[in-house]
Amino acid sequence: MVVARKKNVLFPVQAPRGTQDILPQEQKYWEYVVETSKMILRGWDFKRIDTPIFEETALFTRAVGEQTDIVTKELFELKVRGGGAHYSMRPEGTAAAVRAYIEHGLRSWYKPVKLFYVGPFFRYDRPQAGRWRQFHQVGVEMFGSKAYVTDVEVMYVAHVILQQLGLEEYSFHVNSLGGADDRGEYIKVLGDHYRRNRNKLCRECKRRLTTNPLRMLDCKEEKCQQVANTAPLIFDHLSEEAKKCFQQVLVVLEGLGVPHEVQPSLVRGLDYYTGVVWEVQPKRESGSQSSLAGGGRYDGLVKELGGRDTSAVGFSLGVERVIECLKDEGVELTTTESPQVFVAQLGEMAKMAALKVMRSLQESQIHFAESVDREGMQPQLKLAARLGVKWVVIVGQKEVLDKTVILRNMTSGMQEVVAQDDLCDELSRRLNLPE
Fold first, then answer.
1. Integer Cα distance of 75 and 133 in angstroms
2. CATH top-level class of 341-430
3. Distance set, CA 402 to CA 332, 344, 348, 421 (Å)
4. Which of 41, 220, 300, 400 stands the most exposed, by the fewest C-beta atoms within 10 Å?
């Protein structure tokens, strides 16, 4: 009996919703953003740290806040065989960095302890422009300084990164949440305001009214924004010390030439923030989730997670959003993906010699293309012409015996014999590469 096989509806396989493949032609943007950020952060004496991409769920519920959208709606929770531990993919980087700071006794390091990390993060959210379920961030954390100038320093570092990437059309939106007492008093006053306008709120904000009132301030629903526009301002409920600190931050930002504006409704989406908070917004209207970077102070988080009372401040920069902004502003990248040289070969002995030539080019940082699997010289020269390289290194049977190569100029068609040992120096000179 013949049994008909049901067509597998899962094929052809596609990337999971809310994720993307970073194809070769896009890699230049990623390398540009990440490598520029790493260069600047290392120059600023930040040390790299890498933490696991999943942690115990309890770390996030305690650090980020049990009633935040990130924990209640957006965690990617992992099913563990045999039960026991409960894990989730990391939705942000600060909680894990604090956990590592405590676990490995980094408090004994010279203060402030300056760390950075680069990698993927995960949130189960509705995919839209500028928002992915797997996204990438460059994160920065500083532990051990209460000084307001530390807040300015991390903001200035973010500004330097964006400037050196070539971006110009952005502004820092800045606010202060004050200390724990300030925040508690303000949440009570804010809750009273929203309760008086409860019938005007969306369903989600009605839930937040009892769980996380601060999050109502940045709800994007039009009717909720109208209520937010008449809400009391947190600045009116800050202590004199918090107000002074905020004003000092603004004065130094002005002196440093960092574009900024006060945004009274800015609260950030994580419960651990205290004091000054900020986001970097592009000036061009994109209609998407467009914040390029964001951060602030979180002085109570180390103690909350079991460490000693430690002041801390940090930020994260969204790689995907920065790349989109680079494209929107038409920033010309300084990196190049085009090969400078093509290596061609003719004959079996020449294939091995060509591979050795490729290694010497790579060690001299000369970007080359090749097609060592092809037979015949004409197909290889055609490929070299299509790639637009100026120089072709040709290795034949005679060149193998003589330990030479033929260097062909694709523009003029002229060619000459060069010793293999001199090839890289000769190409570096002709390509005007730095010594």
1. 10
2. alpha beta
3. 44, 17, 16, 12
4. 220
Question: Which of 312, 293, 10, 3 has the alpha carbon at shortest distance from 174?
Answer: 293
Compute the distance between CA of residue 131 and CA of residue 8 in angstroms, rounded to an integer: 30
Structural domain boundaries in the chain: 24-179+239-328, 341-430
Residue found under tokens 């490598």: 35
| Distance in angstroms (rounded) separating the CA atoms of residues 157 and 37 | 9
Structure-token pair, residue 404: 């030479």
pLDDT on residue 334? 65
Q: What is the pLDDT of residue 336?
A: 60
- Give the CATH fold of the 24-179+239-328 domain: BirA Bifunctional Protein; domain 2 (3.30.930)
How does residue 160 score in pLDDT terms, banded at 50, 70 and 90? very high
Cβ-in-10-Å burial (0-12, 13-18, 19+) of 229 comes to exposed
Please give the pLDDT value at position 261. Answer: 95
Record the pTM: 0.85
Contact (CB, 8 A) for 406 and 413: no
Give 261-297 as a DSSP string. EE-TT---S-TT-EEEEEEEEESS--SS----EEEEE
Q: Determine the Cα–Cα distance for residues 201 and 193; give it in Å rounded to an integer.
A: 12
Strands in 62-164 per DSSP E: 77-78, 87-89, 113-122, 134-143
What six digits make up the tokens of 342? 């093509």
- Residue 10 scores a pLDDT above 70: no
Banded pLDDT at 7 (limits 50, 70, 90): low
Query: In this structure, are residues 141 and 158 in contact, taking their beta carbons and an 8 Å threshold?
Result: no
Task: Share the mean pLDDT of the chain.
Answer: 88
Q: Are 220 and 227 in contact (CB under 8 A)?
A: no
Q: 3-state class of 316 per DSSP?
A: strand
pLDDT at 40 over 90: yes
Higher pLDDT, residue 400 or 212: 400
Residue 258: band (very low, low, confident or very high) from pLDDT cuts 50, 70, 90: very high
Give the phi and the psi of residue 140 in degrees, each rounded to 5: -135, 135
